[in-house]
Amino acid sequence: MTLTAQHVRSRRRLRQFVELPYRLHGREPAFVPPLREDSRRVLDRRRNPFFAYGDVELFTVVKAGRVAGRIAAVHNPRHNAAHRSRDGFFGQFACVYDHEVAGALLDAAARWARDRGLTTLIGPVNFTMNDECGLLVDGFDTPPSVMMPYNPAYYRDLLEGWGLTKAKDLWAWKRGPHPLDDRVRRLADRVQRRHGLVVRPMDLGDFSAELSRIRNVYNDVWEHNWGFTSMTDAEFADLGGRLRQIIDPSLMLLAEVAGEPVGVAVVLPDVNQALPAARGRLTRCGLPIGLARLAWAARRIDRTRAVLFGVVERLRGRGVEALLYARAFEAIQARGPIDCELGWTLEDNQAVNRYLMADGCVRSKTYRMYWRPL
């Protein structure tokens, strides 16, 4: 019997959709179980600001009486307007190792995209390039860092078996606790004096205004990057609200000239080290058991993830990037001997990748974006 993907329209099917990754991968050492509340929030049209302009259709495939796979088909009109394209996307992919199941899921996403006049299928993204994106194809030996996805190695075979091919690789880098080179420190000091720069930590007491400053720099920095679409005010506010619980303001740096933000460094404690302790839930039987476990495990976090280093275009290439990099790692090292994951970076961003290698960073993971014409 040919398998057919089913629309997720009922609470029961939505619950099955959310639960599938936990059931498939819950025993895998590198799987970090997200909080179920966070998983549901991403799919909630009332709570996720993506749905103010984009559309998503969820599908599952049942085999032998059980849900065996899931997928989200995504239409992002802001992406297509910015890139003058007709791209469709897929995300939220989870599947048993079965090409028939994977094919039914991807066929359903492709049909949904074609029905809307879209001509390519790109993914995985959940649901934009500003969110979790890419398929892990190298670096399965360690769990993902905060805000990075996970999948088992066989997913690559499933996607490529359907005809998806590489569009772009995204690289994650590991930097050990080794000290900064003295030459980098001296360069940072010279740049700071030359441009009259002030580098300061984020002010949590002025949180909304600080988010706006970071967003403006972020959108300027990434404007011309492959696949990028600027974040709306609502999307950035939503992200900031979710991250506020884990932000360490000493690791969120803004570079300013005469009070104008010209660069940002965003480094987060790697809360993924603590998340497994919650087992996907903050409460059980009405008691905050998961929350207590998470808080206890968070005391042992000894990794960070550098999500963003960026400088506005008019000051790029003048050493301001080195200044932010130096000040960020001075702040990280003040916490003790802590490893840091940096990225992701685009595989063809040669300037940044060379700089990271020169500082002793080592590529730790590769995430692949796939595409196929429809």
TrEMBL record:
Top-level division of the source organism's lineage: Bacteria
InterPro entries per the UniProt record, alphabetical: Acyl_CoA_acyltransferase, BcerS-like
Protein name from the UniProt record: N-acetyltransferase domain-containing protein
Organism of provenance: Nonomuraea insulae
